[in-house]
């Protein structure tokens, strides 16, 4: 079976700076894949390349067995994207926006109208459907962006910080929806700084740091690797299960500038 998402030698440079440096990724169909890294590590740049929003400097990308550059329209028919900036049209209402997106994906008017109504109700936006998107809060915009990303029933969904600014009640609803998509065979590629959410949802994790993949595998494999590094000469202490935050900090935290900052005398005026 072809990988749902495959990238090999993927690279993106901006003049003298290389944001993503020859990374390889293989995400299998049906995986809930978490893509983590510190700020500026290359996460959003990678998602933009994988979704055709940004041309790579080098490398190959295939989605569902289709070469992204040879068949960009065919690939985009089968993917949904919630990008970093959401890119909503502020002069449209929520209903107008979903109708526009649905028809862009080739849905007929009846299907578009039905799915738009269902999504607005599901997202708790039915009472806000006639408000201009320019007047939406950040969290409302996030929910609408996710609605637009799934209106055509994508087989692969890319999410860049989808829970940012979303209230706790809505977050539970969205998580249930995403898990339902996975149960029906979709593939989800998620980047988020909220590690508790990633740990709860994702089965496979890749960590990027300074443009390089520094860890990649099933969550349990990463956990076992870090535990073996922490306890090389003894069994893992009884009852100890490393959280994703501990795994992440063990892999990339030691080299983070804040990790090496002296705690004594720093910002003394705050105490």
Q: What do you see in this structure?
A:
The chain has a single domain (5-257), classed as P-loop containing nucleotide triphosphate hydrolases (Rossmann fold). The longest helix has 16 residues, at 168-183. The chain has 271 residues and is an alpha/beta fold. The chain has helices spanning 43-50, 72-77, 94-104, 109-122, 138-150, 168-183, 195-201, 219-230, 244-252, and strands at 5-14, 17-27, 32-36, 58-63, 66-67, 79-82, 156-160, 187-191, 204-209, 212-218. The model has no long low-confidence stretch (mean pLDDT 90). Helix 3 (94-104) packs across helix 4 and helix 8 packs across helix 9 (244-252). It is built from nine helices and ten strands. The strands form two sheets. Strands 6-7-8-3-9-10 form a six-stranded mixed β-sheet, with helices on both faces. It has a four-stranded antiparallel β-sheet with strand order 2-1-4-5.
Query: How many domains in all?
Result: 1
End-to-end CA span = 58 Å
Task: Give, in spatial order, the strands making up the sheet with the most strands.
Answer: 6-7-8-3-9-10
Task: State the total count of DSSP E strands.
Answer: 10
User: Percent helix among the residues?
Assistant: 25-40%
Proportion of strand residues: 15-25%
CATH homolog superfamily: P-loop containing nucleotide triphosphate hydrolases
Q: Helix/strand-derived class?
A: alpha/beta
Q: Provide mean pLDDT, rounded.
A: 90
* Rg computed from alpha carbons, rounded to a whole number of angstroms: 20 Å
Poorly predicted tracts of residues: none
The run of helices and strands is EEEHEEHEHHHEHEHEEHH
Largest sheet: 6 strands, mixed
CATH topology: Rossmann fold
Please identify, by name, the CATH architecture: 3-Layer(aba) Sandwich
> What general outline do the C-alpha atoms trace?
globular
**What would CATH call the class?**
Alpha Beta
Q: Give the number of helices.
A: 9
